[in-house]
Amino acid sequence: MKKILTYLLILFISLSPLTAQSPITEERMETALQKGGDEVSEDEEFYSQLMNIVFALAFIVFLMIVAAYYLRKFMQGRMEQINVTSTIKILEQRNLSAKTVLYIVEAHGKQILVGESVAGVVALGDLPSKRSFEEVYEQGRSS
Question: In the chain, N or C: fewer CB atoms in 10 Å?
Fold first, then answer.
């Protein structure tokens, strides 16, 4: 991954001066020559700076995406490491919607189904290890 980032950085640095050239038409060239050539250099400088800003912004957005990817990967590994050493373990997690999540949590050998939403966190029921989720769900509906 470091090689890819290095190549992209080199590509960004090498292409930014090439793509920063302003389009010069014959009419603009003639008017610039009549005025002494100052207008063309100001336009070229403006487009050069604009393209440098655009490429810098694109590079920063790319770095943010890469950083988010590695941060997510790091946090996932950290969660697995915490589960190994802790007495409270999150066995599974399932997103029901953007703001609603179900967790199967194990604490002292007991499995609990927990729901999290905008309203808060709610224990939905106990999950005996030998019974399936469907059996626990049917028992909860009949109660």
Answer: C
